[in-house]
Amino acid sequence: MKKHAAFLLAGALTLGACSLPDTPTVDTDIEQSAAADTLEITDTTENHFGFSTKVANPNDGEGENDNIAYKMNLQVAADAISRFSASLPGIENVSTVVTDEEVLISYQVAQDYDHEMDPNEMADQVKKNALSVVPRWYHVYVTDDPDLRVNVESIAETHLNDADMEDAIASTIKLMRDSSPQGYPIDEGENANGETKDEENDMVEEDIDLAPAAMDIPAVKSLDA
Questions:
Q1: What are the φ and ψ backbone dihedral angles of 95, each rounded to 5 degrees?
Q2: Total domain count for the chain?
Q3: Alpha carbons within 13 A on the beta-carbon side of 167
Q4: Which of 209, 144, 210 is nearest to 179 (CA)?
Q5: How confident is the model over 125-180, as pLDDT tens digits?
Q6: How many C-beta neighbours within 10 Å does residue 11 have?
Q7: What is the distance between the alpha carbons of residues 50 and 40, in angstroms, rounded to a whole number?
Q8: What's the CA gap between 123 and 171, in Å, rounded?
Q9: Alpha helix ranges (H) inside 12-118
Q10: 78 & 154 share domain
Q11: Which of 110, 122, 154, 160 has CB 3.0 to 4.6 Å from 164, enough for a Cys bridge?
């Protein structure tokens, strides 16, 4: 799977009486076209909805849109997921990493939480919070194992090359799935993490180094210091 080294952390954020954050925005990098076939209207009503009208362009099939790139703000997404998840009953703190196609969440259940809840149900609620923030193609992995919190946070805090980062993410995901409930399947065609059967088989077939990522990352960080 393709991975990029831009990984961002929003950790241990707890909601008190404050309001929820605004919906994460999507940054766009679109070169303005001189063609008159595009009508873009912003803030057209007091509702401040996003709105755009575009007339079909016969050149669209000839690479006209190749330079258009829509970029999600990963930091805003990670912050929103941590905030929303920390507002759930019984959740004490949350750390979230958002990559270009995965969300890794470590959460801790409050020790004094006196309401019994199935751990799988709790995992499902945390996962659904994340799915409400990121695009539909994302895969979400959660863990309530305190020993894996450092793994998740280390992914966001260290500098590794693409190959090593991919290994660290794959290793952490494997440990999360082995040690923690992942909630219920998304639908009939996807498992609890949002993977199709083919994607799930690909992960099983991958040769993953199961050494916890956090064991190697501090050594790399010390060399950079």
A1: -125, 135
A2: 2
A3: 15
A4: 144
A5: 999 999 999 999 999 999 999 999 999 999 988 888 888 999 999 999 999 999 99
A6: 19
A7: 9
A8: 20
A9: 74-86
A10: yes
A11: 160
Dihedral (C-alpha) 127, 191, 195, 199: value to the nearest 10 degrees? 150
Q: How far apart are the C-alpha atoms of 41 and 51, rounded to whole Å?
A: 6
**112 and 39 fall within a common domain:** no
Q: Which domain holds residue 37?
A: 26-71
Residues 213 and 151 sit within 8 Å (Cβ to Cβ) = yes
As a whole number, the mean pLDDT across the chain is 75
Tokens 């050494």 found at: 211
In angstroms, rounded to a whole number, what is the distance separating the alpha carbons of residues 94 and 74? Answer: 16
89 shares a domain with 103: yes
- CB atoms closer than 10 angstroms to residue 177: 17
Distance CA 48, CA 163 (A): 42
Is the pLDDT assigned to residue 223 strictly greater than 90? Answer: no
Structural domain contains residue 3:
no
Phi and psi angles of residue 28, each rounded to the nearest 5 degrees, phi first: -120, 145
